[in-house]
Amino acid sequence: MDGIHKPADQLFENSKQTASARIFNELLQAILSGQLIPGSKINEAELAARHGCSRGPLREALQRLEGLHLILREAHVGARVVSLSDQQLTELYQIREVLEGLACRLAAQHMTERAKDELRRLLDTHRRYLEDGGHQKYYPQSGDLDFHYLLIRSSQNALLLRQLGDELYPLLQLYRRQFRDSGYQQPQLAFKEHLHIAEAIIEGDGELAEILMRKHIARARKRLKHILTT
After folding, report:
1. pLDDT tens digits along 165-178
2. Which SUPFAM superfamilies has this protein been placed in (predicted)?
3. Which of 74, 77, 170, 194 places its Cα 20 to 30 Å from the Cα of 118?
């Protein structure tokens, strides 16, 4: 073999992986955008027909979504988008409060000058959005999690990044639309709190940065609880 043509089984494997990745990305966006709401059933036969694929790539995509805790699959029942109870959402924010507080403390110790410049640019962008009345731009797909994610990366703690970025944040994004549509968003206040957190980190005051971040997330948790109980 001259190395130009790949074996048929390898071509099939690459094609399957490509189909799986495409379906995964489309389903992920559908879930995070609210097209597939929490609790909605996922019909495998319907999806396979819609995407023009076999069940194999589809099930691989569903397995990846299950790994992100965005869907649940049960024997003889099928798959559905995860729907967290009020208590589970509260617990999610409690864990986030502790872990992000720690991330801010570590970021104050380890943030590089390049990361500080990136943080300043991000905050300048958010400031312009708010000054122009673009509150929806301030909360795009990943929203102010961009700010939080940057601080977590700057903590230089791989375990924190994995637990928050790969495990908690997809679930948080799933419920961001509930915040956005509730009328309880407070972007000006959130931005002001972000500024104070950033200032503490840039000044290297990890203790203050941790306190401010925990208060910031605790306030969001209280607003969420109010939304869920009214």
Report:
1. 878 888 887 776 65
2. GntR ligand-binding domain-like, Winged helix' DNA-binding domain
3. 170
